[in-house]
């Protein structure tokens, strides 16, 4: 196991894979449920023109809560749970690519950057169709005038229809308007957003953790340092990639076809400030998300260690 650094990194070959995947599904589902309202708010803020609907993150939160209730903050959540598949694909790809790159380089930054970007490429290929549908559902309610597709009144009657009918209704509309390609609208924009985001996040996560370990007392639990490093890395990555995230959201929700044209129109209509739309919501959501992900993921790896290695890690 790698022990070059002050904070030890549990690698793929150290894990009991059966435990890793069992605990991983539960962890991913918990994280998704926790941060989903912030994701919905971020999407609505990014798609709105100027401040036509909400003036900011907290204004959006309270307006949605008053007008649509708690249910409004979880529009499209059931569809979004299918990203559990992409979540497992992401962590598997990340760990396997790290292992592969380690054959050519022991530099942790190189391994993290390549593995993070590769994992995001695989995950986004699964996630984009789910995002396209869930984002259309997110925009219903107060934001439905900003999207091409609206729910028919018949799709909102009956308890079972509220869960599955709305999704069927949106899927049918997307397919009728754009065919199968409609479910991959914004795929390039997603890759341009999330591959850099993931590639930046992992190296900065290890960098911040390492720097914190040099400042902290020697008996400080590594998990605390990692929990602090996660949000710092998330804020850094979110700031760097937010402009493309705004473009991605508009391409997917408004049905645009050109990333460059969407970018130009955004600059023309709202100036450079338009590229920061949703950034505060993104950082607010990414901070607790990063803490939960880091603590959950590092704990997951610790719990998934092969039995003979359990006592070898400073926790």
Write the SSE topology.
Blueprint: H1 17-47, H2 57-72, H3 77-80, H4 83-101, H5 108-138, H6 159-178, H7 187-215, H8 222-254, H9 259-270, H10 279-303
Helix pairs in contact: 1-10, 4-5, 5-6, 5-7, 7-8, 8-9, 8-10
Biggest sheet statistics: none
Estimate the mean pLDDT confidence: 84
Can you give the helix content as a percent range?
55-70%
Report the end-to-end length measured between terminal Cα atoms.
15 Å
How much β-strand is present in the residues? under 5%
Rg of Cα set = 20 Å
Number of beta-strand segments: 0
Shape: globular
Instruction: Outline the low-pLDDT stretches.
Output: 1-5
Number of helices: 10
What class, by secondary structure content?
Answer: mainly alpha
Spell out the helices and strands N to C. Answer: HHHHHHHHHH
Record keyword descriptors for this entry:
single chain, 315 residues, 10 helices, globular
What does this structure look like?
The chain is mainly α. Helices cover 70% and strands 0% of the residues. The protein contains ten helices and no strands. It has helices at residues 17-47, 57-72, 77-80, 83-101, 108-138, 159-178, 187-215, 222-254, 259-270, 279-303. Helix 4 runs antiparallel to helix 5. It is globular, with a radius of gyration of 20 Å. It starts with 16 loop residues before the first helix and ends in a 12-residue tail after the last helix.
């Amino acid at each position: 196991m790698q022990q070059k650094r002050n904070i030890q990194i549990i690698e793929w070959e150290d894990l009991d894979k059966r435990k890793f995947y069992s605990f991983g599904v539960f962890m991913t589902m918990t994280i998704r449920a926790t941060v989903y309202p912030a994701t919905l708010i971020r999407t609505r803020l990014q798609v709105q023109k100027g401040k036509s609907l909400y003036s900011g993150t907290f204004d959006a939160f309270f307006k949605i809560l008053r007008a649509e209730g708690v249910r409004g903050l979880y529009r499209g959540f059931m569809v979004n749970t299918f990203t559990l598949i992409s979540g497992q694909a992401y962590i598997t790809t990340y760990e396997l690519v790290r292992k592969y790159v380690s054959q050519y380089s022991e530099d942790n930054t190189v391994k993290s950057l390549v593995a993070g970007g590769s994992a995001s490429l695989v995950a986004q290929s699964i996630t984009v169709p789910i995002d396209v549908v869930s984002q259309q559902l997110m925009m219903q309610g107060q934001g439905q005038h900003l999207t091409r597709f609206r729910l028919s009144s018949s799709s909102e009657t009956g308890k079972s229809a509220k869960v599955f009918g709305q999704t069927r209704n949106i899927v049918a509309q997307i397919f009728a308007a754009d065919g199968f390609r409609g479910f991959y609208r914004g795929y390039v924009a997603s890759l341009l957003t999330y591959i850099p985001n993931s590639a930046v996040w992992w190296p900065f996560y290890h960098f911040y953790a390492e720097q914190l370990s040099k400042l902290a007392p020697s008996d400080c639990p590594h998990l605390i340092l990692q929990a602090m490093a996660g949000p710092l890395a998330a804020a850094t990555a979110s700031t760097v990639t937010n402009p493309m995230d705004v473009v991605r959201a508009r391409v997917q929700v408004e049905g645009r076809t050109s990333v460059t044209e969407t970018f130009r129109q955004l600059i023309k209509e709202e100036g450079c400030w338009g590229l920061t739309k949703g950034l505060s919501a993104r950082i607010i959501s990414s901070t607790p998300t990063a803490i939960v992900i880091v603590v959950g993921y590092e704990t997951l790896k610790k719990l998934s260690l092969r039995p003979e290695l359990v006592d070898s890690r400073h926790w």
